[in-house]
Structures are given as C-alpha cells and as structure tokens.
C-alpha cells in the first residue's frame, strides 16, 4: 500500500501548479465524468477525458493544443483517506485529451474509489472493483447489461436506475451513441431532445457526439458506479456497416474507411478500454474473467463479418445458410471456440450485439429472417452453439433489437423438442424507439412461430443479473416512458438459469 505523506501532498500540489504556469487556467475540464473498465484480479482501467467546452464543433472540447498533466488516485474509501495507488498521466491533444490509466497491483475481489485532478480542478469520484482471484469461485456477482441509447429518442433515466442497483459490473453491448444528424431518426411521438452537429463522419464529428452523450448526468452516474466492459455494434460508426462495406453498398461512399478509422479513434478516446486502434482496425474482442465463477467473452460482430445477405433486412434468403458466411470472421471464431475448450468457469457468457437464436418473422409456412443478425450467418452460429458442449453453462447476452427477449438456444432450430444447449437474454434499449409498450401487434404471431422464445417486452430498460455457483437470475427491468425524465423502474419479469440445466425457468 502507498502511504500518503504531507511531503507527497506538497510535491503533488507543486506539480499540479506547474501544469498551468504561464498558461491560461482551464475552466472545469471534467465535464464528461469518469469511468473504469475491464477489471482483472489485480487491476482496472481508469478513464477520463478533458473537455471544458464539450460540445465544441471542432471536437477538441475547448482544450488547448498541448498536453496537460493529470493526477489520478485510487483508494479504499470514497474520502481518500486510504490511498493505495496514485500517479500522473498526460492528456494529449492527438488522443482528444483522453486519459487511460491501467492500474495494477490491486487486491483481488476488492472495491475501490478513484478520481482525477488537473489544473486545480478535481473530478467526481468513481467506484470500481477488481475481479476475484483466478482460482476463486468467489461470492455472487451482480452484473447489469444494456444497449441502444439514442440520445434524441428519450432521457437516459434507465442508466440512472441501473446505477441505483449498484452492480459490480456493467456490460454495454453496442449502439452506445448514434451517428444521425438532428431529426433524421425520429421516435414514435417525436424526439424530446436533439443531437448537436451533422451526421458523424469525421473525427471532430465523432468526438463531439461522444461528448454530448457523456455530458448526460444519468449516463455519468452509471459509469461512475461500476467498471464497464463495452463492445460496439453499428451506430458507433454507421448503420448496418459490415467490415469495410458501407450501409448501402450500391451508393458509393469513397471516404468510408476514413470514417471507420475516425470512429474507431473516437471510440477509444471515449471508452474505458486498453487497446488503441491501428488505422481502420481495433481488436475489440477479449475476455473478462470473474474468477472461476464467470468468463465473459466479449465479441465483435461487425468488424470481421461478411456483408449481409440478400440486400439486408427481413428476408427469405437461402444464401444465409451458406457455410462460408461468417459474422465473427474465422480468427475470432477460433479464438472463441478455443476459449470454450480451455474454460474452467462455472458460467461462460457471450457479450455480443445481435440476436443469436433463430427468429422466424413469417407466420405459417416458410421463413423470413433478419439478415443483420446471426440468422444471416446460420452456419457460423451453429458452430458456436455446438461449441457450447465444451463448457458447463453457456449464456448469450444480446442487444440491438430495442426490445427485451428471452430464448432457449436449441441444438436444432427445426425441432422444438431438440436439446436446449444454452440460454439467450436480450436487453431492450435504453431509449431507442421511444416509450415503447408492453407488447407489439405482431408479438403473438412471432411467439407462436418460435416456441423456443420464452419472453418478450417492448419497454425501455436493461437487464440485471445475479450470478452464483448454482444459478443465474435475470431480472428484466423496464420503464414505462423515456419521453420525459424521472420514470420509475420495475421488474417486468424474472427468470432463473440453473447450473447444468440450460434454458429459462420463470420465477
């Protein structure tokens, strides 16, 4: 443990003063809050980004074109009387004045508090934690997961309610921000607030958009309450993109790869992740291990996928069955299946973006499937599902579809009586789609066509889970409105997945 001395505080204060010597003093640069991410048994990644004028059109957040020294501290108590690590980092203009501090040497399975300071200003305090030791099963894990937060479609109250649940870990499964210009994507009933700036295509655009989202107080609360592990879907870059293919390949967009590089750069700058992009590439798939209780395999189903079959959308499309089609890419698929074979976890969990289970949208004979989901890459999906036999318990977590679903993953989709090999939990959106409803007009017909689907709800919210050695409990948390702030949250339904008994059992 690092002991805090009066001399250390004086030296730290002198260093902080030196940052601003001879330069105009910054206004409060911590307008975007703080975050932590991807905990290990001995460390965690701490994040902030300096931006006294967060919505500046140039994406620079009102920062000068020079590096700023930032101090960080991590302590066992929120009053910082027991500081265990401290240091300095440089917020550099070429990285959007973001700060990523990979803190190591912490205790396994412990709660910590952290903060930053720069140029006489101190950030809010964040709460984080490390995972249990690799050999320990540990106690219960409360994990919440969410997706699809369209700023224009509503208020981020669901993030606030998530923070009030005080989870140990948060997974965000994509569509953290949206690329559209003001008013081009309108929720039923209208948009209660607007995006700043044009459709995001440049680094300045993406930096500004991320900053607008990060200024939301409810989102800041959710980031500050627990470490996050994040993956993107499509809207962090562009709707329905696939590898190097623009949303509408029939309409040339010669700057798409430059746009992708800019989006990846801004994503790194604004997220608590360790890896930096290399041009148009950013290796996002990784594992977060929670002792021997759970391993979270965080997937990227955008960067390596084949273009959507049959022109995308809901289609009757034999090409979706082509065994060469891949949503993960061959290398990521191998990484995932190898991870299953070597796993010692009680629960192996896929943190990923799009609907995994087969979903037939056509009543009666024939099929109509979503080409943007795993249904458009059926052989890839079936190889992954076959790999579930290598693990003790397989759970798939999903976002994207703006509604809550629960499903049993089947060995054969054409036979409802076939073996259940895993379980899928799908989070609804934080705001995307507006207030929503308990059901949709087509719900009954879809559920009848897909007997492996056990639950549906069309409200906004998130999923709260509790992992123990014996079961996973999933609470589908929903809000009745997001078109105005302050909605209460309620549990719309609860299910249990029992150890060695895949499938959903309603509580």
Give a structural overview.
Helix 2 (157-164) packs parallel to helix 4 (217-225) and helix 3 (203-214) packs parallel to helix 5 (256-270). The protein is 18% helix and 28% strand. Strand 1 (34-37) and strand 2 (44-49) form a beta hairpin. The chain has 8 helices and 24 strands. It has helices spanning 6-20, 157-164, 203-214, 217-225, 256-270, 330-342, 378-387, 443-449, and strands at 34-37, 44-49, 68-75, 83-91, 98-103, 111-118, 121-122, 126-129, 141-146, 169-172, 228-230, 286-290, 294-298, 314-315, 347-351, 369-370, 394-398, 404-410, 420-426, 436-437, 453-467, 471-479, 489-498, 501-506. Strands 9, 10, 11, 12, 13, 15, 17, 18, 19, 20, 21, 22, 23 and 24 form a 14-stranded mixed β-sheet that branches. Strands 3, 4, 6, 7 and 8 form a 5-stranded antiparallel β-sheet that branches. The chain has a 3-stranded antiparallel β-sheet with strand order 1-2-5. It has 507 residues and is α+β, with helices and mostly antiparallel strands. The protein folds into 2 domains: 6-129, Sandwich (Immunoglobulin-like); 141-506, Alkaline phosphatase D (PhoD) (Purple Acid Phosphatase, chain A, domain 2, 4-Layer Sandwich), CATH 3.60.21.70. Residues 143-476 form the PhoD-like phosphatase metallophosphatase domain. InterPro entries: Metallo-depent_PP-like, PhoD-like_MPP, PhoD-like_sf, PhoD_N, Phospholipid_Metab_Enz. It comes from Lentzea tibetensis. This is Alkaline phosphatase. Residues 32-130 form the Phospholipase D N-terminal domain.
């Amino acid at each position: 443990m690092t002991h805090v001395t009066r001399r250390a505080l004086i030296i730290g204060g002198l260093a902080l003063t030196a940052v601003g010597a001879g330069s105009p003093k910054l206004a409060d640069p911590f307008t975007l809050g703080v975050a932590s991410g991807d905990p290990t048994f001995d460390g965690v990644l701490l994040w902030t980004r300096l931006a006294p004028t967060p919505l500046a059109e140039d994406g620079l957040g009102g920062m000068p074109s020079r590096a700023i020294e930032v101090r960080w501290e991590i302590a066992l108590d929120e009053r910082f009387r027991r500081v265990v690590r401290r240091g300095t980092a440089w917020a550099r203009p070429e990285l959007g004045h973001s700060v990523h501090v990979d803190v190591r040497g912490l205790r396994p399975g412990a709660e910590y508090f952290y903060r930053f300071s720069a140029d006489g200003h101190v950030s809010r305090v964040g709460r984080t934690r490390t995972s249990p030791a690799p050999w320990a099963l540990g106690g219960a894990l409360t994990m919440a997961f969410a997706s699809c937060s369209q700023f224009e479609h509503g208020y981020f109250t669901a993030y606030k309610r998530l923070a009030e649940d005080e989870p140990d870990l948060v997974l965000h499964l994509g569509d953290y921000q949206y690329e559209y210009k003001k008013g081009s994507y309108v929720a039923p009933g209208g948009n209660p607030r607007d995006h700043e700036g044009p459709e995001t295509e440049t680094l300045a655009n993406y930096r500004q958009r991320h900053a607008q989202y990060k200024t939301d107080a409810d989102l800041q609360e959710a980031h500050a309450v627990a470490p996050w592990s994040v993956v993107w879907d499509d809207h962090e870059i562009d709707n329905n993109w696939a590898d190097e293919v623009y949303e509408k390949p029939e309409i040339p967009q010669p700057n798409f790869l430059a746009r992708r590089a800019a989006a990846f750069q801004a994503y790194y700058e604004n997220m608590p992740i360790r890896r930096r992009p290399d041009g148009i590439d950013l290796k996002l798939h990784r594992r977060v291990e929670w002792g021997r209780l759970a391993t979270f395999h965080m997937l990227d189903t955008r960067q390596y996928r084949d273009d959507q079959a049959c022109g995308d959308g809901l289609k009757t499309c034999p090409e979706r069955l082509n065994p060469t089609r891949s949503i993960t890419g061959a290398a990521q698929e191998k990484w995932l299946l190898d991870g299953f074979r070597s796993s010692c976890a009680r629960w192996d969990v896929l943190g990923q973006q799009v609907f995994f289970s087969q979903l037939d949208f056509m009543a009666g004979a024939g099929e109509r499937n979503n080409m943007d989901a795993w249904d458009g890459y059926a052989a890839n999906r079936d190889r992954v599902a076959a790999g579930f036999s290598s693990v003790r318990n397989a759970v798939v977590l999903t976002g994207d579809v703006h509604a809550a679903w629960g499903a049993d993953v089947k060995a054969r989709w054409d036979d409802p009586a076939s073996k259940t090999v895993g379980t899928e939990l799908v989070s609804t959106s934080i705001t995307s789609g507006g207030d929503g409803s308990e059901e949709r007009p087509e719900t009954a017909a879809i559920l009848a066509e897909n007997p492996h689907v056990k639950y549906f709800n069309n409200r906004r919210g998130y999923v709260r889970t509790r992992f123990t050695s014996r079961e996973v409990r999933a609470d589908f948390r929903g809000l009745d409105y997001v078109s105005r702030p302050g909605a209460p949250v309620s549990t719309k339904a609860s299910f249990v997945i029992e150890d060695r008994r895949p499938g959903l059992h309603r509580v």
